[in-house]
Design brief:
Helix content is 40%, strand content 15%. By secondary structure, the protein is of the alpha/beta class. It has a single domain, classed as Alpha-Beta Barrel (TIM Barrel), CATH 3.20.20.140. Strands 1-2-3-4-5-6-7-8 form an 8-stranded parallel beta sheet. 49% of the residues are buried.
């Protein structure tokens, strides 16, 4: 019996840790039932890398954006460059964008300005966003709550995803109320992630995405190893158990969610 199709909605397949065996990683992903992979950029160079992978492999799609930890490189010309790159037919989102107050590689105000401009671009182009949040939930939600009412009507139910969700139940509810999806990664399988599993259990099934965030955040069964899309099934299995459905049903649901959110073809 063929494995149910899965979509890895966040995988940094362009990162150097995949340089030696990228084709084999994609083959293992196919063997594991992963039929689609979204590669989000983190800076202008990786925008080009993500698009190149999407041009090369039919299962790969790109997302274009500047990560908060790279936002020092953002300047007045960046939006024009991003607008041009985002017009590529294999680009499906603006991302990975957001706020990161843990590393603070860029000052908070610089991060916020880059985020706000990229949100404006997403609304202009009618593209969903892939949002990074680390230790910045309140500031992030304030910005998203100001932005959401300004988007075109067709985008209002597919604003984007809060990637690798790890914030509080209150933040989850606020994001869901706005129209965002929640992306779940390896930590949902960790032994002590009880609060995160409670959030995943209460999230509407039609607002859940599965993602690996490869090469990071390998699931419990592969802790200590490089993560890769072939391990997506562990996350799907955990979500299926939390929602008391079988793996095939959760795979169909999360894949349908990804297709709807990112207009995958």
């Amino acid at each position: 019996m063929p494995l149910p199709a899965l979509v890895d909605s966040h995988c940094h397949l362009n990162f150097p840790s995949f340089d030696d065996d990228r084709a084999a990683v994609l083959e293992r992903a196919r063997d594991a039932g992963v039929s689609g992979i979204i590669v989000p950029a983190v800076d202008l160079r990786s925008c080009q890398e993500a698009l190149k992978l999407a041009e090369t492999y039919s299962s790969v799609y790109a997302a274009i954006g500047i990560h908060p930890n790279s936002s020092r490189e953002y300047d007045s010309s960046s939006i024009a460059t991003l607008r041009d790159l985002a017009s590529h037919p294999r680009n499906v989102a603006i991302g990975e964008i957001g706020l990161d107050y843990y590393r603070q590689s860029s000052p908070k105000r610089v991060q916020q300005a880059a985020l706000e401009k990229q949100l404006e671009l997403a609304a202009e182009l009618g593209l969903p966003v892939i949002i990074h949040n680390r230790d910045a939930a309140e500031d992030l939600m304030a910005i998203l709550e100001d932005w959401a009412p300004t988007v075109p009507k067709g985008l209002s139910r597919r604003l984007g995803a809060l990637h690798s969700f790890s914030a509080s139940c209150d933040i989850a509810e606020r994001a869901l109320d706005l129209g965002f999806y929640l992306g779940f990664t390896g930590p949902i399988t960790f032994k002590n992630s009880h609060a995160l599993r409670d959030i995943a259990r209460s999230a509407p099934p039609d607002r859940i995405l599965v993602e690996t965030d490869s090469p990071f955040l390998a699931p419990q069964q592969r802790r200590g190893k490089r993560n890769e899309p072939a391990y997506l099934g562990y996350i799907c299995d955990k979500l299926a158990a939390l929602h008391s459905v079988d793996r095939a049903q959760m795979a169909r649901q999360t894949s349908s969610n990804a297709v709807e959110l990112f207009a995958l073809g």
